[in-house]
Specification:
Leucine-rich repeat, LRR (right-handed beta-alpha superhelix), 14-stranded mixed sheet, mainly beta, two-stranded antiparallel sheet
């Protein structure tokens, strides 16, 4: 027989008030930053893509079982079992099992209101996206499918999503980039899958695309077909934690940020950075870079931040004094043994337009007491220089 106090507890749970979302971010979407603000969530037209008449909130009675629905946000994440500790009257422990939804959502739920702008389905057991899963959701702005078991996507699954701008489908079992992505897409996060190939034409028609995060996939340099990024005007691209041995060719020329950290890149050759003159942040940390060919950095006139930490460089890369806008250089955890007086700053004064506000050189076998003070004459403050802490 159930103890009376336990029945009372279960009764209290059954009579609890329904979830009420007071702030838009009552739930998390991913382990990376999510770019939607409160205006976007409520349907406000912040980019010219959403309809102006969608600003007025509506309250639909449609809400899938186990989900939380409020102000065009449908949250169906983490639908499963919840276990919590309890105490018996005799002092021993027991586990209280509370069912908070279906035992692992297996598919996209039905009865989703057609005016939904954000659909959160992360942390479930969805394995397939079918043809009509998103039928009628023509106002959907953001779709979150992070941390499921998706391995199959119908070629027309995303066809109804004519206004979709953010697709988060990281941490799944995908072996290829989904076909026929919505032309309205601005941001795609597809990291931590099993993708080995980026074929030509897979991004065709995505003229609004701004950001792609595709790290954590077993991508090699040979996996990028020529023309794979044709037509894209990307601002941000990250291919970290892959199997790259060099900087991929034919990436979009429009890139402002390129992150290739945690790969197996061994060298930067002269032509590797030739087409990326608009970069202001380049991330190459945690690779195996031993050599940076002279003149390679001269193709980056707008570079402001350079990450070369945790590599195998034996000296400070040449060409840094010529980068007039460079402000941050990470060179810690390399094999640098000497720092010259002109390695960072140009000869003379008034040449560099932006002074450094961060130079890291710690965890290198360089005798910092031998470095001349004039070496950092173009640094804003002595606290911006990090030395020492080298251990063999």
């Amino acid at each position: 027989m159930w103890p009376l106090w336990l029945l009372a507890s279960l009764l209290a749970l059954s009579q609890a008030l329904p979830f009420e979302q007071r702030g838009f971010w009552d739930f998390t979407l991913d382990d990376g930053p999510f770019m939607m603000n409160d205006e976007e969530a409520s349907g406000a037209d912040t980019s010219g893509v959403l309809d102006p008449d969608s600003v007025t909130p509506t309250y639909s009675a449609m809400c899938p079982f186990g989900c939380h629905c409020h102000l065009r946000v449908v949250q169906c994440s983490d639908l499963g079992l919840s276990l919590s500790d309890g105490d018996r009257l005799d002092g021993s422990k027991f586990m209280l099992l509370v069912v908070v939804g279906p035992l692992g959502l297996k598919s996209v739920p039905k009865e989703i209101s057609p005016d939904t702008t954000l659909l959160d389905l992360q942390n479930n057991d969805i394995s397939e996206l079918r043809k009509d899963d998103f039928k009628g959701l023509q106002h959907l702005y953001a779709l979150v499918l992070v941390n499921n078991k998706i391995s199959k996507i119908h070629e027309k699954a995303f066809s109804p999503l004519r206004k979709l701008q953010k697709l988060y489908i990281s941490k799944n079992h995908l072996v290829e980039i989904p076909p026929n992505l919505p032309s309205s897409l601005v941001e795609l996060r597809i990291h931590d899958n099993r993708i080995r190939k980026v074929p030509k034409g897979v991004f065709s028609g995505l003229r609004n695309m701004n950001c792609i995060e595709m790290g954590g996939n077993p991508l090699e340099n040979s996996g990028f077909e020529p023309g794979a990024f044709d037509g894209l005007k990307l601002n941000y691209l990250r291919i970290s934690e892959a199997k790259l041995t060099g900087i991929p060719k034919d990436l979009p020329e429009t890139l402002n940020e390129l992150h290739l950290d945690h790969n197996k890149i061994q060298a930067i050759e002269l032509e590797d950075l030739l087409r990326y003159s608009k970069l202001y942040r380049l991330g190459l940390g945690h690779n195996q870079i031993r050599m940076i060919e002279n003149g390679s950095l001269s193709f980056l006139p707008t570079l402001r931040e350079l990450h070369l930490d945790n590599n195998k460089l034996a000296r400070v890369p040449s060409g840094l004094p010529d980068l007039k806008l460079l402000q941050v250089v990470y060179l810690h955890s390399n094999n640098i043994t000497k720092v010259g007086v002109n390695d960072f700053c140009p000869v003379g004064f008034g040449v560099k337009r932006a002074y450094y506000n961060g130079i890291s050189l710690f965890n290198n076998p360089v005798p910092y007491w031998e470095v001349q003070p004039a070496t950092f004459r173009c640094v804003t403050d002595r606290l911006a220089i990090q030395f020492g802490n080298y251990k063999k």
